Amino acid sequence: MSVRLNHGGDDLEAVHEINVTPFIDVILVLLIIFMVAAPLATVDIAVNLPASTAQPQPRPDKPVYLTVKADLGLTVGNDAVSRDALSNTLDHVFQGKKDQPVFLRADKAVPYGDLVEVMNMLRSAGYLKIALVGLEKVEAP
Fold it and tell me: Which pTM does this prediction carry?
């Protein structure tokens, strides 16, 4: 049984303390979600790139990579593309702006003739700015 000793008004006093426990719980849950989701957002295609000693060039904020895999398959970004649909796919990605650079990367096992064939396909589609991608090679002193 409870007893109320103060029979005064029903005014409650202001509490000057903030309960941060729910805030910390929400932050920890968000941290866990981002820790799980971050590796899923970095999907990449494994390509064995050759190394180069050239000076690295600045790249745009969102480069578009055209990848020639060892089995001569093509991908734009992370999506596989047939050779017939390459022009339409690039037009869709670049929204018709053919002055944008296409970053071309190819596996070491891709024959030179096949790489030149892909470059000819890009040129016939109207994409004349082609940047070849390679790994940076550290020179031995």
Answer: 0.57
